Amino acid sequence: MSQQTSSQEIQSLDREHHIHPFSNTGALKQQGTRVIEKAEGVYLWDGDGNKIIDGMAGLWCVNLGYGRQELVDAAATQMQQLPYYNTFFKTTHAPAAKLAKAIAEVTPGDLNHIFFAGSGSEAVDTIIRLVRQYWCIEKKPYRNIIISRENAYHGSTLAGASLGGMGGMHKQGAPGVPGIEHIRQPYWYGEAGDMSEEEFGIACAQALEDKILEVGPDNVAAFIGEPIQGAGGVIVPPANYWQEIQKICRKYDILLAADEVICGFGRTGNWFGSDTLDIQPDIMSMAKGLSSGYLPISAVAIGDRIANALINHDDDFNHGFTYSGHPAAAAVALENIRIMKEENIVEYVANDIGPYFQKKLRDTLADHPLVGHIEGVGLVAGIALMKDKTNKTPFGDDVDVGMICRDHCFANNLIMRAVGSRMVLSPPLIISHAEVDEICEKAKLCFDKTLESVAE
Ligand code: PMP
After folding, report:
1. Which of 129, 179, 225, 324 fits as disulfide partner to 116, beta carbons 3.0 to 4.6 Å?
2. pLDDT digit string (tens) for 168-193?
3. Same structural domain for residues 338 and 216?
């Protein structure tokens, strides 16, 4: 397509031919889309020349920010040498092998073995298949139930949507994948009533034990959770929650899976959310920040227990994707990890920009009449918008406060996402103090405008 194609032409092509993910197709065709043309650092530019600050790092993924020439060069160099080859038939290549080692080095515990896929959803599907295969190898094929949580997000393939706890997705994807059970989410601010955080942490973990006993401990393969729920609205569990969950998993010999697609690669101030929340998973999915979103790639890090079962089992694991370990994507991910180490990105989030961001958000927004609660760790945060913050009264179904607020953000060149009535932020990890200030000031302005809109 010629460089001269105008924004209007692109919008028109889009309207005619492009069905967008997670969108109201008819409404979008009416309203039209905003064309994003280029990006640098934490900023995007649209077709009308507006400069937009990206408070979401794309979809929680552009961790090193836009315009990193090293990542572009890594892809180009690899594409010239070997743009594609598979890893199915007793072959490998340098980017996949080196990346597997690089991931094993930064993951916690004995997650020493890496399976590659193309997206977070594929990584989650891989976890389902791997843990079930593990129990088959162990001659306990009846252990096939996977327990997940309400309001969890684990992807949009049939298996990912079934495993996730998003009601809206379940309604549209039925019938779901069998053998999946859900328990309550650890959303203290929204669901604890009068319970302290500690009491609520125990109650939510107890829900896991109750479910295990209900379905029979011998029938459960694994429990899966995001260390901090992301797409559910950035929900940070009570401090004791994961410890209790782990105790219960160990008691019944149930595998523990951490879905690190958002939390992984520095977002919470450690390489993984599991480090931040002191989780020792048997298996872990990752994507997004693995390549800073420059090319699609995901991985499952597998602990020795599951990997050894596969290694000692003299049969194929019948699972894989054409793009498992794609050389160009793997080369970008390898370079991404190298830069993260060279520039001490994880330390920057842990000791500098993460604490700064969390404090600035609270200093700027906590007193706002719409803001009921702010929670977050490192460079991820969720803000609950309430009708009456003192009495904790939420807005009714007639006021889509999140969408109103998101539209004000959009109009004021701030990308902030709405999840129901929660506003969420997850900016690139290379963001500066001044850019954090800009996000917070713009958010305040947009909350003011939202307050005016809902008063009308
Ligand atoms: N798991 C989690 C925790 C996620 O946040 C996401 C995406 N937001 C996925 C899985 C699915 O990833 P993808 O969209 O790359 O398939």
Report:
1. 324
2. 999 997 668 999 999 999 999 999 99
3. yes
